[in-house]
Amino acid sequence: MAAERNWARNLTYSAPIAHPASLEEACELVGRSARVHALGTRHSFSDCADGDGVLVALDRLPMDLEIDEQAATATVGAAVRMGDLGQALDARGWALANLASLPHISVGGAVATGTHGSGDRLGTMSSAVRALQIIGPDGALREVTGDEVAGSVVAMGALGIVTRLTLAIEPTYEIRQDAYLDLPWSAALDRFDEITAVGYSVSLFTRWRGPVERVLVKSRDTEPPDDLFGARPAGGRIGVAEIGVDTKNTEAGGVPGPWWDRLPHFRMAATPSVGEELQSEYLVPRATAKQALATVHEMADDLDAALHISEIRTMAADDLWLSGAYGTDAVSIQFTWRDLPDLVLPLLPRVEERLLPLGARPHWAKLFAASGVRLRDHYPRWNDFERLRDLRDPDRTFGNAFLEGVFGA
Q: What is the pLDDT of residue 279?
C-alpha cells in the first residue's frame, strides 16, 4: 500500500490506501483499524477524504446493481462511478433525476460531500439517497433507513465506510444541450430567476469581467428559447467553457441524447475540465443569490489572475443536515482556479468575507478557509449531527484532520 495523490494533484494522501477485494475483507480491515477513512475516486480538492491511519477504497467491489421497479429505487455499490451507473440504469430503462458535471466521480463520494448538478427543481446527488449500508467502527455492517438517513448522507465519511446506497430512480429520458454566448451582466442579475427556469438544467459560466461568457441550457420536455435575454445562440457543438479542449465536453448543439451523456458537462473518456486546477464553491440561499453574485462581480479584477472560470448553478432544497441546500433552494458559485495556490488561497478568506454573511455554505470537497466555528450557525442541524457522530463513532475511528478542523477534535 503506497500513498497517492488526488486527481488535481494538489494533495498527497497521508495514509496508505487499501483496496479490499470483498465486503468481508473490508469489514475485517475496518474492525482491526484504530483510524480508517473512506476514499473514493480522489476528486476532492480538500483533504476531506485523507486520514492518518489507513484509507479504504472499495473500487474492487462489484457494482452489483439491484433495481426495485415497484419502489422505483436502485441499490448499488458506493464505489461505482456516476457515469457507469448511468449507463447501467439506462440499459434497463431507468435514470437518475440529475447528475454532477463530472461523471467520473463515485456515487459514494458524491453524496458524502453534497455534490450536485444544476436545476431549479432538482436536488443534489445526495437528495436521491433513500438508504445506506455502512461499516461501523467495529467492522459490523448496519443498514441506515428512516429518519437517520437525513443525518447520514452528507457526512464526509465521519460515520463509517458507506458500502452500498439505495437511490431514487425514474424512467429513462433524453436531454438536449444548447449554448448561448455573451449574456449581459445586467440581464444575469435582473432576470436571473427567469434565466435559470428556461431549461431542465441551466449553468452560467463567467470570468466576472464583461458579459457572462456562456449559458448552457439542458432541456428535457421543452424547447430552448431562440434568444436568451440578449445572449445569442452559439450553434454547433460548443462546450461548457473555453477551458481544456472541446472534445472533453458532452455534445451540445441541440442534439438529443441519453440523460447520462448530456446532464454531465464532460465525457467519461476524457480528463474533465482543465485537469491541473484548484476549485472552491459556495452554496448561497436563493433569497440572497443576486446579492451574492453582485458582490463577487465587484471582485472581478482581484480574481482575474487566479481564475480559469466560474460556474453558477441552482438546486432545490433538501432536508439533509449538512447539505448546502438544507432547508433552502440554493445557488452555487463555483470557482475553477488556476493551479496557483499562492494566488488562490489568500483569495478564499476575501471571498468568504463577502459570502458567509449571506448564508453561504462551502462545498465540503473543495477548498475553503472557514473553520467549523464560523460555519456551524449556517447548519440548523449541526448539533444533531455531532450527537449522531458521538453515537456512531464515539472513539473517532473515522476521524481525520479535516473533520477535526470542521467539528473540533
A: 96
